[in-house]
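User:
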Amino acid sequence: MYQGFLEVIRGSASALLMAMQVLLLSALAFALLALLVKGREAIAAAERARKEVSINLSLYVLDALFVAPLAALVVQLIRATVGGSPLELLNPSFWKSMPLWLTVLSVVFLGDFISYFRHRLEHTRMLWPSHAIHHSDAEMTWLTLSRFHPINRLTTMIVDTTFLAILGFPEWALLTNVLVRHYYGEFIHADLPWMYGPLRRVFVSPVMHRWHHARDVTGAGSNFATVFSVFDQAFHTYYVPGLCTVPLGVNDEMGKGTIGQLMYPFVEWGGRIAARFRGDRGVKPAVEKDEAQLPVGR
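Assistant: Predicted structure:
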């Protein structure tokens, strides 16, 4: 039993060390990019974001130690359950017969397709409390991608992986989709004034995603895709009027610090349940908001 406990500790320490090494590489790359693009303003922006970054780093460590291993297990279970069952619409051999580049493009494109709708659901009243943590970063940086509640992380992984597993994608393709979405996700969260010109009609740019994090309803109710902007254009949620200079974050009363943010969804949902038990039908509790105030898709 003691040996087993030590193995768990070693495994967690190894996973955390690897996660910190990857984080350091991303930090160096984005710091250099920020200095090249923004010069001295990059240093001032980093100073303004210091408090938010500390929360992001705390959640990053929590994710590396506990959430990521659980998410990896969930992915394996989903693939094992769907594989060879009537749920699997396409046999993995179908993708093996395809050129490698086409399989990669397909898994990322279709993964972005399902994540677009999953993301819109996260902006509805029921799921917003767990997703609000991601939007609560008022000084959005590439590290904002680490700012997810564990519940939000797991539901994202379950929905996206199940959809792609049903389409018969092999495990390596599922991993490729996760990696592409992760690193491109870091990029579009970075504070970069890039809109891509004509390519904005194909790919999500940093400015496009910044409008998604805008505190006003119009901006936050748009731009749900991560990689391909074609989905927002097809479903009329594309919104890029220019550079995003409006305040970011949420109007929700979030808890203070990492612990407060982790507790926020449970406080929010608990308040709603308590209000229903009390029979508060005429007056909404403080945790409820008018539907027009929620950042939902248009």
